[in-house]
Amino acid sequence: MSQAVLGVRLRRCPTKRLGGRAPQARRVAARLAVLSALACLTGARAIGRELKVKEPERAFVLEPRRPERGRWDWNRAQARVTPEGDLEWSPRPFRYEPGASIRYIDFERGRDSKSGTSKGSPWKHHPWDPNATGTAKGCRGVHTYVFKRGVTYRGGLRANESGEAGNPIRLTSDPGWGRGEAVISGSERVTKWHRGATHKDIPQRGKVWYADLDFPARNVWVVDRGKITRLTLARTPNWKVSDPEDVMSEWWTWEQPQWGKREKHKTTVGEKKMHRGTDARHLTKGPGYYKDAIVWTEWGIVMGTPFPTRVEAFDAQRKALAFQGRWWRDSGVIITNNRYYLELEIGYFRAPWGAILAQLGDRGGIPVTP
Question: What is the pTM of this model?
Answer without folding.
Answer: 0.56
